[in-house]
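URGENT: need a sanity check before tomorrow's submission.

F., can you look over the phosphoglycolate phosphatase record below? I want to be sure the sequence and structure line up before it goes out.
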Amino acid sequence: MIRAVIFDFDGTIGNTLPLCIAAFRRAIEPLAGKQLPDEEIVATFGPSEEGTIRILAPHAYEQGLADYLNCYRELHDMCPSPFDGIPELLEWLKARGIIIALVTGKGRRSCSISLEQYGIARFFDLVETGSPEGPCKPEGIRAVLDRFLLKPEEAIYVGDTASDVASARSAGVPAVAAAWAETADRETLRRAGADQLFPTIPAFREWLENSLCR
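Structure tokens as predicted:
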């Protein structure tokens, strides 16, 4: 029986990946003294944005981080709302007593900016953010299990990338592929071995409705 739904953020809750890239470009290019193509920025993802800035502008870390957070907030109108259906889904889960958690690679401050922008912070019983040292989602998922005394099979992790599927596997929980973002690659998610894959949020909710009734 599912007792907890654990969500990724970027590409799962909202279409924030383009925002992240745009904020990095605006904040870091002046410090790096060169143009940063999307591929170079995305290649640094895994650590939180603090880790990304250490890679892209190690000589100007403090300035880079401050500028990034300012740009991230200023540019958030690029994606002013979460994906259609997410607030209603969170409300529906909360009404049924399901534990809702967030495990993201985002840093604490950028995550707070987005949760505030979207007005959904109140839904999450626990938020685990990223580390500048590198990917740590399996540890975040396990922290949720430990906090709420959950067995791995009582939770699911919902994310939009192959690394999210791998993180769920590493933590021993079922992996649900959120394939509703423009940036999601459904074939890659299938090859990664997701237990379930949903192209739309309504399809995911329908599956949850059936699963929670068992």
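My own read: Strands lie at 4-7, 99-103, 126-128, 155-159, 175-178, 196-198. Residues 4-15+81-212 form a domain with the Rossmann fold fold (CATH 3.40.50.1000). If you see anything odd, call me.
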